[in-house]
Amino acid sequence: MIHSNPLQKSIIDRYNITFHGQGEQVILFAHGFGCDQNMWRYVAPAFEQDYKLVMFDYIGHGRTSPEHYNRDRYASLQGYAQDILDICHALELDNVILVGHSVSSMIGALACIQEPDRFARLIMVGPSACYINDGAYVGGFERQDIESLLEMMDGNFLGWANALGPTIMGNGDRPELSQELTESFCKTDLDVAQQFARVTFYGDNRSDLPKLRTPSLVIQSLEDVIAPVEVGEYVAKNIPNSSFRMISATGHCPHLSAPTETVEAIREYLSRTN
């Protein structure tokens, strides 16, 4: 599958792509805002025996260089969806199981809508189609909440990271998880983080959900202040061929805080649908 032609080497270097596992079918893991591929370290090994695992970092995250960042390209989530498609094209990946956390759930949906024949399954961990409440739609935040959050990010990024990390992670009895997320935020390139946050929190992908034909699984934490239960249920209800799986985890990062449950949800879904 992987060769050493110049295009593949360029893509592998650009996105810090790593390969694991020994199976034939590919699982492509896409991390969330302010994170990197290392966030999958408790989940991915469970699939190494049966699948080929491909992991990467978005530009400005993890070990990627922000010099490749293009503000015009990343002015919408479509630019990140193109990243996923570029990786698939360069590495000749087909019949892909795409696993996306948080905003990468919608990024993954956009990629699947654009090239539906390339993806076998889409697994969404903590998705949200729109973070802002709108009439009867419950997104979890009022617009002024998002505006205040982004103003704080612009004025005091370190303070923003220290405040938001524990809120997103939940699990107050396990401060090491919040610390890891906070440190991950702080390592993200500031210009990248500021634009990505706006694209994420002001985004509205509700109209895209009915266009998604890839069979999909929504994994929803029982308590998640970033993407509440109503949001996960809405996403699952509006995707034509979807399943909904509630797990007893708390917080927005169950792949870190409750990896066993997350693995079980993914494994059960794949065994049932593959």
TrEMBL record:
Belongs to the AB hydrolase superfamily. It comes from Persicitalea jodogahamensis. The gene is rsbQ. This is Sigma factor SigB regulation protein RsbQ. Residues 27-265 form the AB hydrolase-1 domain.
